[in-house]
Specification:
By secondary structure, the chain is α+β, with helices and mostly antiparallel strands. It folds into 2 domains: 171 residues, PAS domain (Beta-Lactamase, 2-Layer Sandwich), CATH 3.30.450; 103 residues, Homeodomain-like (Arc Repressor Mutant, subunit A). Helices cover 57% and strands 16% of the residues. It is built from 13 helices and 8 strands. Strands 2, 3, 4, 5, 6 and 7 form a 6-stranded mixed sheet that branches. A two-stranded antiparallel sheet has the order 1-8. Strand 5 and strand 6 form a beta hairpin. Helix 1 packs antiparallel against helix 6. The two termini are 38 Å apart. The model has no long low-confidence stretch (mean pLDDT 91).
Length: 279
């Protein structure tokens, strides 16, 4: 699936949001990579602390976790990052398919800023971030009541819907990855090898490898297993099929192996999962 955003209209929308709300906002692609950020220039508290590689790693993990939750729920997700700042992310949807994300941050609550700085200062010290500049930049962060934070995130969600409504995003569903992904999902019950997929889609092995690497950053084997386990979980939730039959439905004939890989991914066996959701 090829997704393209109208650059001019996208930046205008983000700039209007920033002018109105005063909170940084960005548009990200399906792979959680930034496309457009407003404001684009100028140093902030987060930019300053992210110069530390360990902080950058922790921040990136927070972002990734938030993107995945928003992608799974297809709804807005408000959270506190590892440094205690409020952030939010919302999916951009096209016919219930996530084609990108809008993220805002970083915001403080309206409780005493000195109290909030004391907490963050201790976190900074854990990364050897010491100096008045950190405090100076921290004190420039926007402060809001929880009610206002919810309001600005709801406006962000409206922006995400506006992108689709005004056709600021163009989705080309006939792309190579979309054809590969569709074929795999429609044939989970069958044998899915590199040879089978390449022959069906009429592409070479290198093209298949590069397409998956670019779109999902996974090998073919791992991606197929991911889709099989996601489908198995869905069948366990929505049908009365026996666990063994669910395994066969997603193309895994060995029940014991199915149980092991399911537990490895979801930290619970298929039978335990079925019992848990039936309570």
């Amino acid at each position: 699936m090829l997704v393209e955003f109208n650059e001019k209209n996208t930046i205008k929308l983000l700039e209007d949001y920033y002018s109105l709300v005063g909170v940084g906002i960005g548009l990200y692609d399906q792979n959680y990579q930034p496309l457009y950020l407003v404001p684009e220039k100028g140093k902030s508290f987060c930019q300053l602390i992210r110069e530390n590689p360990e902080v950058m790693k922790a921040c990136r993990k927070c972002d990734m976790d938030a993107f995945k939750i928003a992608e799974k729920t297809k709804d807005i997700y408000i959270y506190k990052c590892h440094m205690g700042l409020y952030e939010a992310v919302a999916p951009v949807l096209d016919e219930e398919v996530v084609v990108g994300f809008i993220m805002i941050g970083q915001v403080l609550s309206d409780v005493s800023i000195n109290t909030q700085w004391e907490r963050v200062e201790n976190k900074c010290k854990n990364y050897d971030l010491v100096g008045e500049s950190y405090k100076d930049y921290f004190y420039t962060l926007e402060r809001m009541s929880i009610k206002k934070i919810e309001a600005v995130t709801n406006i962000m969600l409206a922006c995400a819907a506006y992108i689709w409504f005004k056709k600021i995003v163009h989705v080309q569903r006939g792309s190579l990855f979309f054809r590969i992904d569709t074929f795999i999902k429609e044939n989970l019950e069958n044998e899915l090898t590199q040879e089978v997929i390449c022959k069906k889609i009429n592409i070479g092995r290198t093209t298949l490898y590069n397409c998956l690497k670019r779109n999902v950053s996974m090998s073919l084997t791992n991606y197929i297993m991911k889709l099989r386990l996601e489908k198995a979980r869905e069948l366990l939730e929505r049908t009365d099929l026996k666990v063994r039959d669910v395994a066969l439905k997603v193309g895994i004939a060995d029940y014991n192996y199915f149980s092991r890989v399911f537990k490895k991914r979801y930290e619970i066996t298929p039978r335990e999962f079925r019992l848990k959701i039936s309570k």
